[in-house]
Amino acid sequence: MKIAFVGKGGSGKTTLSSLFIRHLAADRAPVVAVDADINQHLGAALGLDEEETSVLPAMGAQLPLIKNYLRGSNPRITSAETMIKTTPPGEGSRLLRIAEDNPVYDACARPVELDGGPVRLMVTGPFTESDLGVACYHSKVGAVELCLNHLVDGPGEYVVVDMTAGSDSFASGMFTRFDMTFLVAEPTRKGVSVYRQYKEYARDFGVCLKVVGNKVQGQDDIDFLRDEVGEDLLVTFGHSDWVRAMEKGRPPRFGLLEEHNHQALRALRETADGSYELRDWQRYTRQMVHFHLKNAESWGNAKTGADLAAQVDPSFVLDESWASTPQPA
User: Fold this and answer.
1) Which end of the chain has the smaller Cβ count within 10 Å, N or C?
2) In whole angstroms, what is the distance from residue 159 CA to residue 321 CA?
3) For residue 285, is it left (φ>0), alpha (ψ between -120 and 50) or beta?
4) Domain ranges of the chain
5) Which CATH number fits domain 2-324: 3.40.50.300, 3.90.226.10, 3.40.605.10, 3.40.50.620?
């Protein structure tokens, strides 16, 4: 399952995504955690100290390696230089699996030990001073999108992505890459504004969207969220002494998280797992191609000097049958 946590800056989406990752790890589920936010905080929320987070490899810095690996022997992709963030896989492409070892994970992922077992953590990398005036942050998250486009995952496997704040993910097709999107909203008008944007933009793409209320202090907050988002409100989180300790760098054993918050996390997982039966690989592949052609026409062809529409393999559908198919040499 591919799961996104989105929301405005300061809504608590990184905290809640880290709690969900810990919940999955406690059940020993295979997990790849991805920090795709411009403010890189997921590593710290998972318990890494400053020194450990500072040496996490940036996916954006490994883009040539990622492209060369994923390209494989696909004859429609003439070079890694002509691959852009939306380039779809085709016959001969190499695909990523959750639990395997491969050069992309070797270069970009690091294990993080949590209660129950390790998870793989990947980060886009921070927006650095050298990027100012010469690079767009969307080029950094392009490495995440390219990996998601080439990912084959099955039931009981999880990719959890802490997304960039606000509605920035609509700058590409990445918002359609997920089986479930959890939008974290505070019980304020600003808190639900991103929800309205997501709901409007995602309506035509079959995006499964549920709202997670955060920083809820009482029934009035719950009523407010229910009035604003209706049946899309799934669960709410309130004050947590466990989270306060975690934010100070001293998290207790995860089993000591408050029971009502454990219940909320179980509801998130049940909802995410329930979306599996709605998975439509044909639509997923069509959307991938749609956004690739759109990006190719608007900027990709000019940037690469190639006709990127030729990269589309019309007979290829990404689905779980590829999970047991040997990778091309």
Assistant:
1) C
2) 19
3) alpha
4) 2-324
5) 3.40.50.300
